[in-house]
Design a protein that fits this description.
alpha/beta; Spore Coat Polysaccharide Biosynthesis Protein SpsA, Chain A; 2 domains; seven-stranded mixed beta sheet; 49% helix
Length: 316
């Protein structure tokens, strides 16, 4: 099969018939063999009934219905597991992504040898309350991930080589960072294509400021896991050692200052009356806890089931 199109959706019953007809028209015009996998993320409208009707008229339509709303990342992960096409295309169900982009995305994967091609909605039809946070978010994501050629990490329209989606796991709300996940899995040929962005025709946006805040927290988590996930002692042990050493030196300095005052007949206070003593003691305690956290993390990492799962590109 040439292409699998994965469409996660939540309460998009009005747009689904038009989207399916548009995708089918593009596929037939380019003689692609294809499947459309609709992932109904616990919709409360008639989305699932619409998907059933579409499947009756088009055997290339497939569907998965969650019992409740889990989020876009779980929906994509389930779609990736079921995709059988050589190239996997993801797009949103709100008709803001154009299926007319599919042939060029397919060509870039198959002919230009990209592992992943992300869409870039260079001209957006969103309000400033969404576009400005998006620009800040993307600038931060480029800096942290090291993927400097992408302008829009969160664009729903992306194309993947089949190997990519079968070797990454999208969880939580990590759908924003699929290029970063792919890079960490060893798929470094990541490209970008300017795509057409259309104004929303039906329904209402699911964007909220809480997603903007959660996006930064997820990015921080992903960076930490990708950098220190397999070697927690390198970060916790290092920080713990530094903090303990500083606290230990400070405690010695407090004691030495008292001994000096005693030997020279100078007024002095009890060590426990000095605030520096408690600061030093706190540093030593925190340093010990950081070190123990790193040690426990190392034990967990060493006994993890996937500790020796390495991505092998090819073998002869």
């Amino acid at each position: 099969m040439d292409i699998s199109v994965i469409v996660p959706l939540y309460n998009e019953d009005e747009s689904l018939p038009e989207l399916e007809a548009w995708i089918r028209r593009v596929m037939e015009a380019n003689s692609f063999s294809y499947e459309i996998i609709f992932i109904n993320d616990g919709s409360t409208d008639k989305s699932w009934q619409v998907i059933n009707e579409l499947q009756k008229n088009n055997p290339c339509v497939k569907g998965v219905c969650f019992r409740r709303n889990y989020g876009k990342s779980p929906a994509l992960n389930v779609g990736f597991e079921r995709a059988s096409g050589n190239v996997v295309i993801t797009m949103d169900a709100d008709l803001q992504d154009s299926p007319d982009e599919i042939p060029e995305l397919y060509r870039m994967i198959t002919e230009e040898d990209y592992d992943l091609v992300s869409g870039w909605k260079q001209k957006r039809y969103d309000p400033l309350s969404k576009t400005i946070p998006t620009k800040l978010f993307n600038a931060t994501a480029r800096k942290v991930s090291g993927i400097h050629n992408l302008h829009d990490f969160n664009c729903g329209l992306k194309a993947y080589r089949k190997d990519v989606v079968k070797n990454i796991e999208v969880y939580g709300e990590m759908h924003r960072y699929i290029p970063y996940l792919a890079k960490n899995a060893g798929f470094s040929r990541i490209g970008e294509k300017v795509v057409h962005h259309q104004a929303r025709k039906y329904g209402k946006t699911k964007f909220g400021l809480n997603r903007f805040v959660n996006g930064y927290l997820d990015l921080l988590s992903l960076w930490f896991i990708s950098t220190f996930g397999g070697k927690p002692m390198h970060i916790f042990g290092f920080l713990g050692s530094i903090m303990f050493f500083i606290g230990f030196v400070a405690a010695i300095a407090v004691g030495a200052m008292k001994i000096y005052a005693l030997n020279h007949g100078m007024p002095y206070r009890l060590v426990t009356e000095s605030p520096y003593f408690y600061i030093a003691l706190t540093m030593m305690l925190l340093g010990s806890q950081f070190f123990l956290a790193g040690f426990i993390g190392e034990l967990v990492a060493r006994n993890a089931a996937g500790r020796n799962d390495y991505q092998i590109r090819e073998e002869i």
